[in-house]
Amino acid sequence: MGATPLAVCARCSGIYFGLGLGAVLRRPRLSPRALRAWVIVGASLMLLDVALEEQGMHGGWPILRLLTGVLLSYPVGAGLGAWLTRAPSVAHRP
Predict the structure, then answer these.
(1) Residue ranges per domain, the chain?
(2) Which residues are within 8 A (CB) of 84 and not within 5 positions of it... i.e. 6 or more apart?
């Protein structure tokens, strides 16, 4: 009902959106330990969603797929964005 085909699935769209948004906002600035913990929690929630869906406990809810993708990838994007802004530029070397 009202479904529109996408080039990628909702979860992948969430991953791409989360990476991009995190890289642009670069917040919060996380320690490596906090980043690792966030990614582990995000991946665990995503795997739980996949397992529950496979077991027929709930349907394939696009909004939940989108949110688990964002939750997993946003801190990675924030960390990469912060790292890229600190990295020395190689474009202006003589």
Answers:
(1) 10-83
(2) 23
